[in-house]
Structure formats: structure tokens, C-alpha cells
Amino acid sequence: MSVEKQSELYSGKAKTVYKTDDPARLILHFRDDTSAFDGQKIEQFSRKGEINNKFNAFIMEKLAAAGIPTHFERLLSAQESLVKHLEMFPVECVVRNISTGSLCRRLGVQEGLDLEPPVFEFFLKNDALHDPMINEYHICTFGWASMEQVERMKEYTFKINDILKSLFLGAGLLLVDYKLEFGDYQGQVVLGDEFTLDGCRLWDVETREKLDKDRFRQGLGGVVEAYEEVARRLGTPL
């Protein structure tokens, strides 16, 4: 089934979303942009959009095969994918398997601690407020999602954690932390947005070398090379 790209729906930090001639479908365009610190640091890296698009497709297909409902339908081109049009919940689900980043800054804990059980956190998607941490009661009270939807998001997030920790460990990688976003599709909670190296942290299992967007945040260099290395280890078609 072919679809026709129409007007831009919105443009984020590294993706542009387009309407199509099918109201139930959208096109995601993964750009080469990279941003950090609420857009204060922005740079473009050649081929990054293509890598993220194909990496996201690879992960979404793995999750769908394991029983996780996702919005992903198929790749359209090097930088574009066709997805279902969800009514997105304005929250991010974050799981932390190893301490680093904002968790260490907020709680004063040492970086690199194995977290058992993993830490689960909700954040409100609001750039103007710098994505504040929230909990289930904020979400339900302000009508961002129902308690049933909240529980389903948590259930899927922990199931995804088990699937991806195993997948990455098999490639010599530690899944440190990541964020997921969900939406409603015809009354069902469905995984939406993306899973790329822009939204997770991965370390080499032996050296703990960072192979994710922290290379950009911390000025370590080799951003695209790190993304390509992760894709190579997983066998992601690029």
C-alpha cells in the first residue's frame, strides 16, 4: 500500500513528522541533527539520520516479534519510516539499569552502580519546563493518561527492558538507561516515537566505553562512528 507525504505535522529536535493521505498513518523523517541541553547545543552529523531510522526499524521489529505492540510499519527510504498515527501520551517512561547522568546529579550516587531492581521514572514532555519528573498521580489527575494506561506503559517498559538488555548483552553492550513514549491507537496502548541511540545509553561491556549520544553531550567525538559500531555489533542492516 502506497502513501503520499503531505504537510508537516511537527518538527522535533532530530525528527520531522509528516501527515499522509491516510489519516491513520504518519511518516517519520530522521534528520542528521543532534541536540543536547534542551537545544542549546546543536550539530549535524552526516548519515546520522539514516542510521537512526534503520536502527529504530530494527529494534521495533525485534520488539514486535516479542509481542510488544508498536507504531512502526515499514521503512520507506534511508531516512523515512511509515508509522501508525497515535494519540501520544505527553509522558516519557525512563528505565535506569546503571547509575549515570541526571540520576547521579539528583541523588548524589556514584556513577556506574548496577541498579537492581531497575529504577523506573516518569517525566512530563515539556521543553519549556525542562521535562520535570512526575508520578502516576500527576498523570491521572491532569488527564494525561488513565491509571490503566499507566500500568500498561509500565508493564510494556519492563518487558522491553528484559528483551533489550538480553539483545544488547549478546552484542557485548550494556543497556544503561533509555526512554520510551507511548500512545493510544484505537483504544490500545502502543509503543510510539523511536528507539535510537539518541534516547538510550549503551556502554561496552568490557571497557564501559560510551557508545551513544553522551559522546556528543560530553564532547568525546566519534558520534556517528559509535552509532555505526553498535549497529554493526547487532547486525543492523545499514
Helix content: 25-40%
CATH H-tier superfamily of the largest domain:
ATP-grasp fold, B domain
Shape designation? globular
**Computed structural class:** alpha+beta
Helices, by number, come to 6
Supply the CATH architecture of the largest domain: 2-Layer Sandwich
Largest sheet: 7 strands, antiparallel
Q: Roughly how many Å apart are the termini?
A: 24 Å
Strand residues, percent: 25-35%
**What's the alpha carbon Rg, rounded to whole Å?**
17 Å
CATH topology of the largest domain: D-amino Acid Aminotransferase, Chain A, domain 1
Uncertain regions spanning at least 5 consecutive residues: none
Topology:
Layout: E1 5-11, E2 15-20, E3 25-30, E4 33-36, E5 41-44, H1 48-65, E6 72-75, E7 80-84, E8 87-88, E9 91-98, H2 102-107, E10 114-124, E11 133-134, H3 136-141, H4 147-169, E12 173-185, E13 188-192, E14 200-204, H5 214-217, H6 223-234
Helix pairs in contact: 1-6
Which keywords apply here?
34% strand, 6 helices, alpha+beta, 238 residues, 29% helix, EC 6.3.2.6, Phosphorylase Kinase, domain 1, globular, D-amino Acid Aminotransferase, Chain A, domain 1, five-stranded antiparallel sheet
Summarize the structure.
Residues 9-233 form the SAICAR synthetase/ADE2 N-terminal domain. This protein has 238 residues and is an alpha+beta fold.
What would you note in describing this structure?
With 238 residues, the chain is α+β, with helices and mostly antiparallel strands. It folds into 2 domains: 5-84, 2-Layer Sandwich (Phosphorylase Kinase, domain 1), CATH 3.30.200.20; 87-222, D-amino Acid Aminotransferase, Chain A, domain 1 (2-Layer Sandwich), CATH 3.30.470. It contains 6 helices and 14 strands. It has helices at 48-65, 102-107, 136-141, 147-169, 214-217, 223-234; strands at residues 5-11, 15-20, 25-30, 33-36, 41-44, 72-75, 80-84, 87-88, 91-98, 114-124, 133-134, 173-185, 188-192, 200-204. The strands form 3 sheets. Strands 8, 9, 10, 11, 12, 13 and 14 form a 7-stranded antiparallel β-sheet that branches. A 5-stranded antiparallel β-sheet has the order 1-2-3-7-6. The protein has a two-stranded antiparallel ribbon with strand order 4-5. Helix 1 packs parallel to helix 6 (223-234). The radius of gyration is 17 Å and the shape is globular. 34% of the residues are buried. Its EC number is 6.3.2.6. Pathway: Purine metabolism; IMP biosynthesis via de novo pathway; 5-amino-1-(5-phospho-D-ribosyl)imidazole-4-carboxamide from 5-amino-1-(5-phospho-D-ribosyl)imidazole-4-carboxylate: step 1/2. It holds the Pfam family SAICAR_synt. GO terms for molecular function: ATP binding; phosphoribosylaminoimidazolesuccinocarboxamide synthase activity.
